[in-house]
UniProtKB/TrEMBL annotation:
Its membrane topology: Multi-pass membrane protein
Record's protein name: Sulfoxide reductase heme-binding subunit YedZ
Keyword Transmembrane belongs to the record: yes
Keyword Repeat: no
Every Ferric oxidoreductase domain range: 45-158
Keyword vocabulary terms for this entry: Iron, Membrane, Transmembrane, Transmembrane helix, Transport
GO CC annotations on file: plasma membrane
Chain segments annotated as transmembrane: 12-29, 49-68, 80-98, 113-137, 149-165, 171-189
Subcellular location field: Membrane
Length: 204
């Protein structure tokens, strides 16, 4: 039992779970299908968004469900989720560059809303991923948390990127993914305000 618990709690096990979506992607890329790269653009982008959303949901869940161990377990692995989100976003970007070729390199599509919002979101991801190691956390100190707040800007840009990609007509999938995050963030803010009001009322 202890061995099984140790295996389940090992970082490599969690990383293996995060890598599972990449397995069929790798199979598709190695299949020789000429349309494989284009067909993987959406899945890679969606998994990048999903892992980002899950990572952002952890803190509100910890606040709202203090008695449940699940959110606290995820909290210890939140940075892994963020790095995984960046990994899929990087793969998404690489596949886009390969698929679009010279059009992407020369910036021929940069004027389109869904393109530049995607690029901005990815550029925000880069420093967040680079500074995700324990060494960077120690070096930056309090500034590390301030830097991580930029993930909210990346989330908004990702939502716009996703919705604009479908000309706003297929916004439902994006809202389904981001909806729970928005709800949890609102509940988190409300809980914070209630605690603040209680502290202020007891101070007098």
């Amino acid at each position: 039992m202890n061995f099984l618990k140790a295996v389940l709690n090992h970082p490599y096990t969690f990383w293996a779970i995060l890598c599972l979506p990449a397995v069929p992607m790798a199979i598709g890329l190695s299949s020789g299908d000429p349309n494989a790269i284009h067909s993987l653009l959406h899945p890679t982008g969606e998994f990048a968004a999903r892992f980002m959303i899950i990572a952002m949901m952890v803190t509100p869940l910890v606040v709202m469900l203090k008695q449940w161990r699940g959110p606290r377990w995820l909290m210890k692995r939140r940075r892994y989720l963020g790095v995984a989100a960046f990994g899929y976003a990087a793969l998404h970007t690489a596949l886009y560059l390969i698929d679009m070729g010279s059009v992407a390199v020369t910036g021929g599509e940069l004027s389109k809303l869904y393109i530049w919002t995607g690029w901005l979101a990815f550029l925000i991801f880069v420093p967040l991923a680079i500074t995700s190691t324990d060494n960077w956390v120690r070096r930056l100190g309090r500034r590390w948390k301030a830097l991580q707040q930029f993930i909210y800007a990346a989330a908004v840009l990702t939502l716009v990127h996703w919705a604009a990609l479908h000309d706003w007509g297929g916004i439902a999938p994006a809202l389904v993914h981001f909806g729970p995050l928005v709800v949890l963030q609102v509940l988190r803010i409300q809980a914070f305000r209630r605690r603040r009001d209680i502290r202020q009322s007891t101070a007098f």
